[in-house]
Amino acid sequence: MNSYQLGLIMNSCISVIQVMGVFIITSLAGMFSLGQASFMAISAYFTFILARSLDLPIILTAIVGLGISALCAFIIAIPTLKLRKDYFALITMGFGEMISAIVVMCEKYTNGSIGYSRIPKVEHIFWLILAITAFVVYFAWALKRSRFGRMCIALKTDETAAKSFGIDTYRLKIKVFIIASCISGLAGILYGLKNRVITPDGFSWNLSAEMQIFLFFGGTNSLTGAVLSAFLLKLLPEMFRSLELFGQSLQVYRTAFYCVLILLVINFRPNGILGEKEFSITTVRRWVSRLLGRKKAEGGQDD
Amino acid sequence: MLLQLLINGISLGAVYALIAVGFAIVFSVLKFSNFAHGGMISACAFIGYFFQASFESPPPIIVTIAVTSAAGVLFALFLDAIAYRSIRRHRSPSIYYFLASLTISILITSLLNIFFSKNALAYPMLFSSTTFDLGSLKVSRMDMMILAVSVVILAALMLLINKTKIGLAVRAVAINPDTSKLMGIDSGAIIVLIFSIAGFLAGVSGVLLGCKYGVYPDLGQTMMVKGFIASLIGGLGSLGGAIAAAFILGVIEMFWTFGFGALSTPVMTFVLMLLFLFIRPQGIAGQFAKEKV
Amino acid sequence: MTDAILSCSGISMDFGGVKAVDDFNAVIGKGETVGIIGPNGAGKTTIFNVFSRIYIQTAGTLAFNGESVDHVDQVGMARRGLSRTFQNIRLFSGLTVLDNVKVPLDYKGEYTMAEAVFHLPRRNRMEKAVAEKAMQTLELLDLAKYADSSATALPYGLQRRVEIARALVSEPKLLMLDEPAAGLNPEEVLQLVDFLKEIKSKFEGIALLVIEHRMDLIMNLCEFLYVQNFGRTIAKGTPAEIQEDDAVLAAYLGEENI
Question: Where do the domains of chain A lie?
Fold first, then answer.
């Protein structure tokens, strides 16, 4: 594989990590965050600026960077998560705006909207990203299958009922939000290491929203669906980069294209592509047999 | 100087109030955060701009506002048809409204970004001289025009909601759609009406914001955050609270900008909102939008 | 009063001027079975919601197990040993039957998130214990064969049973059942009565508080009854006494043909 192809795979892996952060908040705990990109920014900027100015190894400053993301998540969570869910989406979105403003404001350290590029080079970045991605996906999977996952899903489906079984939903939501923000922060650091430049525009609201769209596309409650859609939806448009429409590369239209797909899904398949199912060999087999069966029936009934 | 800042702040608050109300009216009835409002504002700002620019000698701004807000209503009806109608029909949970509005907002912004560059377009000059003197004060004509238009529209809207039969129906659906249906109110029609009002407000605020800040794809998104913050401070879903909070926010922001510069205002407004929610989570209006038990 | 599991005096609940519950007084002893009956809108479920702290009463005091719980929230109440079912079944839709029954045990799970993620021995041990406990409870309710089905896909009657299993698994001191017999036929009601009596012998000292319309269940099961109408208690006493009470006959038994 040449370096361009490796780059594409790395981008897709980072996209998977991003979506895992959102998966934990949205699919497990049922909250919508529109500010996860800003946690990427916080961790990335702190990690690289500290590494450069204090001349510390990146692994140390990365821990600090993640810690600061966690701290910010904690501060936002305290007043917000006591209120109804709608507040959370709006406040995380406002938080994103604030972080972008701060990055531009602290030009002295961040180099403002031009972007910060004094990022150290890391050896074996491809394997590093691959390994971390695998770990994060495993993390989300193990979390979903533990008592925390059960409590989260209980919280998501019926908060009042969850409370009446002794689950401290407020603290649980805070915990989940902090973990998700650390995962987003991790994605931000890897994004910086891979691209060697970070700009406030790169962590805008649109990125946060894109993560939600990828997640929804894979299914409202399916981990495998989320991983697949995060990987593929990031990768596929790059493959058609050379095609043009109205004088622009097809790549430019990807977000618009996904939005249209989502609207179609909402209209015709209101549970996401995979719904609540996990993707496995058996589901594929069932699909294939259903497809064949339908062909035999020649335009049989729709389900 | 103080008075000057106060006037400018009130004018700024008036635009925020238009946005906040457009957002809050949808929330009060459908109980979801209508993110599409930001995209609508951007789209309407462009529509207004191209309408205005298509004439050799630009028509009065009022004409542009009227045309754009009509377009905003049509646009809202179109969105209702392609996204919200099927959600209503499937009786899906309100999370789908949220998701649909989010998707629409991103769709609009990304299309605008593709076809128009990120550079701002400026509305043609509206006034030959930009300010006029009022005693010792220099008052911007633009700000006064914005203030006047916003206040008239807000007043008309509040009258519509609080004093008419239609308004009563809207309030009834906001409290309980199922019971309203039993009382013979067509809640579907009311919802369409609500989206139209939101579209109308997006049209007006799109033109006004375009005049003030120039037209660019992310305009609505950026400004919508202010509207969100105002309606959160006002008490989610309360129109009166949103308007009050928007004016307060506008004035505070103007003073802050004067003292500390414009760059840090988003930080200030966010921290202000967080502190406010900490102290008084039910908002200014004191109506706490609670989730059903 | 130390042998009362729950006692309340002067409980009132206002909803914007409407008094859903007005001056409700009750004592439920440890191991007792108490029923609340009354027509629709009598405020029975509101009393449940006050007891489980979904609502905080507008007046009156509440004590659980000898301790004042006026300032305890829903979570604290559950952790003190109060458990309930819901009138409109509220199972967790994303979870299987078994997982639904595991949920009430989860808050006291002793393994941390790190242990959860790395599948450390303590996590596996605890998960096994929780699964066994949940499975035992399912077997008690004859639900073991549905353990892996999606909870909300089951028929209505089975969902009610899963709700009872979920409320029982944490071995509460007081179990509150909100219309457990809704939608059951007379034969099933008798089975339910037998089952609830069996529970009382299996879980020593457990008290039951039941809201019900069905007289066959109430009269066969409860030792003491409160009759509510329009938020007020119009009669209380043993089932035999209640059956003789004129006010009850007029307000309730007369209307609903039993």
Answer: 3-203
* Inter-chain CB proximity A164 and C52 less than 8 Å: yes
- Here the tokens at position B262 are 């414009």
Task: Tell me which residue of B155, B152, B197, B151 sits closest to B174, measured CA to CA.
Answer: B197
| Residue A152 pLDDT > 90 | yes
Give the residue numbers in C contacting A (CB under 8 Å), as ranges: 52, 54, 73-75, 77-79, 83-84, 86, 90, 92-95, 99, 102-104, 106-109, 111, 113, 116-119, 123, 126-127, 130, 166, 170
Strand partners for C15? C18
ipTM, two decimals, is: 0.87
DSSP labels, B66-111? HHHHHHHHHHHHHHIIIIIHHHHHHT--HHHHHHHHHHHHHHHHHH
pLDDT at C100 over 70: yes
The predicted pLDDT at position C102 comes to 93
Residue type, B194: I
The tokens describing B276, both together, are 């406010």
Contacts of C55 in chain B (CB under 8 A): 293
Angle at A44 between CA A39 and CA A45, to 5 degrees: 100
Percentage of residues of chain B with pLDDT beyond 70: 95
Q: Label residue C204 exposed, middle or buried (CB < 10 Å: 0-12, 13-18, 19+).
A: exposed
Work out how many CB contacts closer than 8 A connect A with C. 93
Question: Please, are residues B217 and B106 in contact by the beta-carbon 8 Å criterion?
Answer: no
Residues in chain B: 293
Q: How far is B137 from chain A (nearest CA, A)?
A: 31
Cross-chain Cβ contact A276/C94 below 8 Å? yes
B2-121+136-279 fold: ABC transporter involved in vitamin B12 uptake, BtuC (1.10.3470)
Domain ranges in chain B? Answer: 2-121+136-279
- Per-residue pLDDT for A302 more than 50? no
**Residue C22 scores a pLDDT above 50:** yes
* pLDDT score for B292: 44
In the predicted model, what is the mean pLDDT of residues B114-131? 72
The token pair at C184 is 């059951």
Tokens 């966690």 belong to A70
Residue A281 corresponds to which tokens in the numbers above? Answer: 């060999």
Residue A198 per-residue DSSP state: B
Nearest CB to C90: which of A138, A147, A158?
A158
Q: Give me the residues paired with residue C50 across strands.
A: none
What domains are defined for chain C?
1-81+172-258 (3.40.50.300), 92-170 (no CATH)
| Residue C227: exposure state from Cβ atoms within 10 A (0-12, 13-18, ≥19) | buried
The whole-number pLDDT of residue B290 equals 46
Contact A223, A139 (CB under 8 A): no
Q: In which region does residue A55 sit, left (phi positive, over 0), alpha (psi from -120 to 50) or beta (all else)?
A: left
pLDDT at B171: 85
